[in-house]
Write a structure and sequence with these properties.
- This protein is an alpha+beta fold and 190 residues long.
- It has 5 helices and 4 strands, in the order H-H-H-E-E-E-E-H-H.
- It has a 4-stranded antiparallel beta sheet with strand order 1-2-3-4.
- A hairpin with a 3-residue loop joins strand 1 and strand 2.
- The chain starts with a helix and ends with a helix.
Length: 190
């Protein structure tokens, strides 16, 4: 084999090794990051799981019991989404730090409350002391389309400062419900 062919093979081997390294890094990054799950993907996963568990329920609850439980949970979820007006479209969770008594996770959450879209990013610090678990929200970032009302922008800013997710969801639910009523009323008069 002449020297030029040998060098061409060496170059090809190095290029392939570099590609393998890049793909491995990309795979590791993807494995650490949580995936965004849409409602359709969740339903596909549930159906796939149902198919896998058919015939494998020996020693566990029967398949009909599991199916009934799944239908009950689906009905409960549907009721809660209808009752609160919240429809979550995606969620991801990435563990940033984990020790024996402390866990830090980064969450991303998107959805709509009635017709108002929102996107949240925050870190959740969970600390465990003996049997007590406490959780603290930090680095809260809320993105909403609040072009209609400056009070929404002020509310979002205050909520981000305090990191109070419960107040955010309660207030957003009420505001979005009345926003829908106002929108329908104005459409009626047009």
């Amino acid at each position: 084999m002449d020297e030029s062919n040998f060098q061409a093979y060496e170059d090809e081997i190095q290029a392939l090794e570099e590609e393998i390294r890049l793909l491995t890094e990309k795979y590791e990054d993807m494995r650490q990051e949580s995936n965004f799950f849409s409602e359709e993907e969740i339903l596909k996963s549930i159906k796939s799981l149902q198919k896998e568990t058919q015939g494998e329920t020996k020693g566990h609850e029967s398949l009909s019991d599991l199916t009934a439980q799944l239908e009950s949970l689906t009905a409960d979820l549907s009721f809660l989404m209808e009752f609160t007006g919240f429809h979550f479209t995606s969620h991801s969770k990435k563990t940033v730090e984990k020790t024996r008594d402390r866990t830090v996770q980064k969450h991303r959450l998107s959805g709509k409350c009635h017709s108002l879209p929102f996107h949240l990013e925050f870190q959740l610090l969970e600390m465990q002391n003996n049997e007590k678990v406490s959780a603290v929200v930090s680095d809260l970032s809320i993105i909403m389309e609040s072009r209609e009302d400056s009070n929404v922008s002020k509310f979002v800013s205050r909520t981000e400062e305090h990191g109070d997710l419960l107040t955010f969801f309660r207030s957003l639910s009420t505001y979005a419900e009345w926003h829908e009523h106002r929108r329908h009323t104005f459409l009626h008069f047009k």
